[in-house]
Amino acid sequence: MLKSVALCTLFLAAAASAEPELAFAGKAIFEPDFKSVGTNWMTRVGTWTVKDGVLTGVERPEQKHGAVCRFPFPFSNALITFEYRITGGRMASLSVNDAKDHMARLTLTPTSVQARKDDNDHAGPDVAVPFNIVSNIDGKAWQTAEMALVGDWLWTRVGGKLSFGRDPLFAKAKANFGFTVGGEGVEFRNLKVCEATPNAEWEGLAEALRAKYPLPPPPAPAKKKAKKE
Ligand SMILES: [Ca+2]
């Protein structure tokens, strides 16, 4: 009894320290059991295996590209949750695409996480827009990660901390999402996609949260050559 009370207190303390949600989880709409690799998953890049409910991705050096496992899963607003552990890899990500290109990403390293808007204009240089970085995350131990895409917002939470931003691109239809792995050995489990019920208080909270999670400075413009006098 005492033990269960202590556990409950621990969970409550963890919940109390977590930052607020952009959206709340509704009905589950995709929840693979990771007992076998789905026949419609796109896993040609890298090596992807499943065992005991854990999906493991490993980069194949000869492919010169991070390992990619994509789930064809069209959606509009959704809350994606999963657990990850970077056992031997350099980094991993949860990435979301539209029918033609990348849209949104949560980058996971052994020590940090960062959400970003991906380059999506099919032209010019590849320019992504990173949002705030969250440091002091122990990515080598199992961590729970959450990503919500609702309207023009991208919201992510790992270790109770947020990385988030907004852009009109996020409101467009999503065609698929998946994991990427750089290096050897990143594990994923308990992946679940739920319908997202918007948090009506989010807009009011976002500004104060931004003061706590400031955006990085925009990339410096390319230097022009000094004019000759
Ligand atoms: Ca571009």
Protein described:
This protein is mainly β. The protein has a single domain (19-212), classed as Sandwich (Jelly Rolls). 12% of the residues lie in helices and 48% in strands. The protein is built from two helices and 15 strands. The chain has helices at 2-17, 202-212, and strands at residues 23-30, 42-45, 47-51, 54-58, 67-75, 78-86, 89-97, 102-108, 113-117, 129-134, 143-150, 153-158, 161-166, 174-183, 186-198. Strands 1, 3, 4, 6, 11, 12, 13 and 15 form an eight-stranded antiparallel sheet that branches. A seven-stranded antiparallel sheet has the order 2-5-14-7-8-9-10, with no helix packed on it. A hairpin with a 2-residue loop joins strand 12 and strand 13 (161-166). The radius of gyration is 19 Å and the shape is globular. The N and C termini lie far apart (82 Å). The site of calcium ion (CA) has 7 residues, from loops.
Q: How many distinct beta strands?
A: 15
Task: Name the helix and strand elements from N-terminus to C-terminus, one letter apiece.
Answer: HEEEEEEEEEEEEEEEH
Total domains: 1
Approximate helicity band:
10-25%
Amino-to-carboxy terminus distance:
82 Å
The small molecules bound here are:
calcium ion
Class derived from helix and strand content? mainly beta
Shape: globular
- The appropriate CATH architecture is Sandwich
CATH superfamily: Exo-inulinase, domain 1
Largest sheet: 8 strands, antiparallel
CATH topology (fold) name:
Jelly Rolls
CATH class: Mainly Beta
Mean pLDDT comes to 91
Tell me the strand percentage band: over 45%
- Low-confidence parts: none
Radius of gyration: 19 Å
Number of helices: 2
